[in-house]
Amino acid sequence: xxxxxxxxxxxxxxxxxxxxxxxxxxxxxxxxxxxxxxxxxxxxxxxxxxxxxxxxxxxxxxxxxxxxxxxxxxxxxxxxxxxxxxxxxxxxxxxxxxxxxxxxxxxxxxxxxxxxxxxxxxxxxxxxxxxxxxxxxxxxxxxxxxxxxxxxxxxxxxxxxxxxxxxx
Length: 168
Ligand code: S3P
Known about the structure:
With 168 residues, this protein is an alpha/beta fold. 52% of the residues lie in helices and 12% in strands. It is built from seven helices and five strands. It has helices spanning 16-27, 34-42, 46-67, 88-95, 105-113, 128-146, 160-167, and strands at residues 6-9, 31-33, 75-77, 97-102, 151-154. A five-stranded parallel β-sheet has the order 2-3-1-4-5, sandwiched between helices. Helix 2 packs across helix 3 and helix 5 (105-113) packs across helix 6 (128-146). The longest helix has 22 residues, at 46-67. 30% of the residues are buried. Shikimate-3-phosphate is lined by residues 12, 16, 35, 46, 79-81, 120-122.
């Protein structure tokens, strides 16, 4: 059977990078963070890139970086928007195993409100009540993509080891 990458998908702040690293460790497979690859390639941070070239250009590049993972042995943490643009989710389903890190709006709000929102231009600098409303609307828009994932992960009740056994 051909090698298939594992894609972690989910909203900003859902823990894709942290869990991706842990899962890669448990499976002894290489870890790739799509945002980090992109940052390295363009030589600037994501907020800088959004400002200089706009979100549309970012989505094109993100989609290209995603497709480089074809036939790789990698555990890949995607960006929160990656599966929601072009036919990226179709591509993910066809070429990899996808894990959706599921969180409620409240849980995402708790996690994101405690973070530096300026590091994520897609959050548009919102905090507090405005951030809650933004997450609510954006998650509703993105759920139809996330919910197509092969496996939905409830992080509270799932251990890394269990997850490793599922995708192994
Ligand atoms: C984005 C999420 C970010 C990053 C970019 C856009 C989004 O990744 O790709 O800022 O639209 O949800 P994280 O989900 O790792 O924060």
